[in-house]
Structures are given as C-alpha cells and as structure tokens.
C-alpha cells in the first residue's frame, strides 16, 4: 500500500501531497485516542465507541418484527406516481413501555416504504415540520443532481433564520447569493454549518421540496435518509430513514420467495437515555448550530440496542419454507457479520442473490455475511429443515453481550413452497474490464485534522462543498483505488460499481454484483470500477460511517 494517496481529483500534484503530509495518519488518530499502528495492529472488529442505555432493556426475541407500511401514492400524473411525506416529530414506543421522541418520516420509524417499478418515475414531495433544516437523499438511486439531496440543498423549516433566497443558516455569510442556477426554486448561499463554510451553488427551499426519481435503474432495495451538511449522523439516528424498493417484471418472473415470504430488514443500533429519548453524544443536542460529537465517539457512535425495522431484537414467525430477506445496515457505524444459527447450533446457509444495486448474476452461498453501514444484501434462507417450533437466531459475530443478538425466527408450521432460486438470476450486470478504464484515481480515507480538531479526510482534505474535487466525463469508465486506515464503508452517489480487487487480490465472495457501498477494512486497499452514467451534475462520494461523513469524509463528484 502506498503511504500517501492523491487527493480528491487524483491528478493534482505536489501541493496536495504536501497537504496530505500535514494531515497524514498521525495527529488525527491520536486525537481519537488511537494511534494508527495500534488501530492497525488490533484490526479492531468495530470502529466507534458504544453508548450505554440508561433504561432497562427488554429480553431478546419477544417483540414481534414490524414490517414498515407501504406508502400509497397521493396521486398519479402523466405516468408518474406522486408521493407526499411529512417529516415531523413523533413519540414512538421502540422499547416496550418506553416513550421515545423521534424525528420521523410520516410518524414512523422506519419511515414508510415506497414501492417503485423500474422505468416508472415517481415524485416525492417532502414537507419539513422538524425544527432544523433537512435534505433527503435516495441512497442507491440513479437520480438527477437536483433531486439527489446534496447536503446544502436544504429544506428549511418554517421560521428558520434567513430565507430560502439568502443564507440558509444563521451566521450571515452572504456570498454566493442569487443569480445563477436557474432551478425552479430559490438560490442562496445556505452554508450548511455553523463554521461558516459557504456553498455558492446551494439550492435551499422553504418548507417543502419535490424530489423526482426517474427509477431508470435495476430493481434493488434503496433507502432514503437525511443528508444535511454536518448533521447527517444525528438526524438518521433520530429516525430519518426509510426504504424504497424498485421492482421489475423480469425479477418478478424469477419465482423468488414473495409476499409475506419477502421481508425487508433494516438493522440499526441505538441507545436510550434515562428519560426514554435516544442517547447521542452531540456537542449541540439541538442540532441547530454546532456539529460534531463528544471526543470518545469521534470514530463512530454505536448503540447497545439492536433494532430491526425499529423493534429491539424482534422475533418473527415463519413457515418452514424459503424466505427472501432484504437486509440493510442502517446503523451509523456498527458493522455486522451475520449468521443464522439453529437450536442445535448449526448454521443455516445464507444464499446471497443480490447486492446494493440488485440481483447477482448467480447465487453465492455464505456461512456468514459481513454487512457494513449502508450496504444491502438480498439473501435467501431456507427454513424447511428446521423442526416446527424451532428457532433460528440471527447473530452478529462482531457483537458482544447483548449486541451479539440481532433477531430470531420461529418456525411455526410446515407449508408448501413453490418458490425457486434460479441458477441464473440476471444477465444485465455491467461487465467493465480494467482495459475499459480511461483513468485510475487513488483516494486515501484517513483520520486527520480539520478546523483545528479531529476530522476524517479523503485524500488529506475535509469536505468543502465549494471545492471541486473529482470531475468525470459522462460515459467514462474509471478505476478507483481506495485506501483505508480504519473501517470506512465508502459510498458513491449516482453510479453503481463493481469490486475489482482487494489487497491486490481477487474480491471477496460478498463483493459480487453491482454495489454502491464498499466496506474497506482496517489497512485495506480495494479497487472499484464504474461507468459514470445517467446524469450530469454535482454528486458526492463519502464514507458512510455517518460520523465520519459529518466530520469531513466526503468529496464532490462532478459529472460533466
Ligand atoms: Cu446513504 Cu450520501 O448516502
Ligand atoms: Cu447515496
Ligand atoms: Cu469512515
């Protein structure tokens, strides 16, 4: 592994190297209470620190698994389905008997699921009734830039200082007002944070924003979540996350388990304060001004309660049949290595049929399955060999104590099963070869200094919305080499990619298929290949450890 990487942009030369020299692995990791060498020597299974809940926690496998409700369109116009979502505070019962105020989409956590069809566009009109600005990103969506949820394209709540026409946020930096852009809505400088970073291209709106999703993409499990500059991690933690599923006729015709035998599983850890509220170590708990978390949590915030679809360690009754589990790790920082264990201690096969961006070419069987933040895995489990009354626990091999358990299934009855897992799942996976690439770029993902404190940097630099980092040409194939210090789940907006190599060798079995998030493990380097396709405009790539993302580990990706 090279000791230094090129900065965002890859080809910017000497100046960037010098910046990187200043920001290289040392000062920053020391600030997080780790030294680079210690972190690498330990190869820690987690990157982050765990909060302890101050309320009694329920026993595992008691609460039934909820399935998020499917949102009905508010209407249809010109072949597009129109949805409406209000973002608002709601008090939910996440732990039995405990009232937890949350920030929600439509009053639930997870938010309602949107069911979409490939090629049938949808619009979602979001209304922000929360006390702070928000912005929605559809993770995994092939979305025009104006609807991709850029972190400064804020939806300002009623009464928020400034106007959608000027500064989006209190501190009076007026640069970049008005003029250019020509979107249908107001322009302004809306710097997203209290440290005065301004973004001349920000496009804030007041109270509502209508997002357009063409859905010209492979069927896949996507998720929508908040993406506000500097405050994404606490906003997701408070509940701003929901699912969107894209389907098409070809996938429907495969005969995979469906209906009640297809379950979305949004896995997320949380911790609870004594008053029942969600605990989170924000420097500014109002999330209005000062971003960031308290020092012990700079590497990531972990909770001691594992939620699946918003329920703690739930239990789900199943038939003795095949099930399709559509797993999303919506945790801020926690990694999972999932296995399914029967009462006899035997592990059930996890037959992976899909990745972040949809079906694999052919199934891949795992005994355990690592799932990094924001990754999705589409998995078949066959319960037919489990005796009626038997239990199958889903456990996280990286957890300990209570966080080892995730959820459980109880086989309730024998049942007919006409589902199939075809040997060929899809034939439309892109097959880019290294020789197709017009460019190779390299990016380091490392701890560093930012605003005089600890940060997380890409190529030695913290995120700046006003800077141009990487410019790619629409249609170009590129290889990106990504190098990590600690765990960094790296996510690209817009473009799905394939994993070409890890540590100079072949990809791992779970790297199969089309991805939008790759889990870099400590001290690891990996290569991905993609074709920048779909839309021109300003996008992002970033670490999806949400705390790292808020502390600088994000960069601009401009498609021209
Ligand atoms: Cu799921 Cu830019 O994020
Ligand atoms: Cu995304
Ligand atoms: Cu990271």
Task: Explain what you see.
- The N terminus is likely disordered.
- It contains six helices and 36 strands.
- It has three domains: 137 residues, Cupredoxins -  blue copper proteins (Immunoglobulin-like, Sandwich); 175 residues, Immunoglobulin-like (Sandwich); 142 residues, Cupredoxins -  blue copper proteins (Immunoglobulin-like, Sandwich).
- The strands form eight sheets. It has a seven-stranded mixed beta sheet, with no helix packed on it. Strands 17, 19, 20, 23, 25 and 26 form a six-stranded mixed beta sheet that branches.
- By secondary structure, the chain is mainly β.
- It is 7% helix and 38% strand.
- The longest helix has 10 residues.
- Bound molecules: CU-O-CU linkage and copper (II) ion (2 copies).
- The site of one copper (II) ion has 7 residues, from loops.
- The site of CU-O-CU linkage has 10 residues, from strand 7 and strand 35.
Sequence-ordered SSE layout with sheet pairings:
Blueprint: H1 14-23, H2 25-31, H3 36-42, E1 49-50, E2 75-77, E3 80-92, E4 100-105, E5 111-117, E6 122-128, E7 136-139, E8 155-156, E9 205-206, E10 208-213, E11 220-226, H4 232-237, E12 241-247, H5 249-252, E13 262-270, E14 301-302, E15 305-308, E16 311-312, E17 315-320, E18 322-329, E19 336-342, E20 347-348, E21 350-355, E22 358-366, E23 369-371, E24 376-382, E25 391-396, E26 405-414, E27 439-450, E28 453-458, E29 470-472, E30 477-484, E31 488-492, E32 497-502, E33 517-520, E34 525-531, E35 537-543, H6 546-550, E36 554-559
Parallel strand pairs: 1-14, 3-6, 5-12, 8-9, 13-18, 17-26, 27-30, 29-36
Antiparallel strand pairs: 2-3, 3-4, 6-10, 7-11, 11-12, 13-15, 15-16, 18-24, 19-20, 19-23, 19-25, 21-22, 21-24, 25-26, 27-28, 30-34, 31-33, 31-35, 32-34, 35-36
CU-O-CU linkage binds at residues 137, 139, 225, 227, 374, 491, 493, 540, 542, 544.
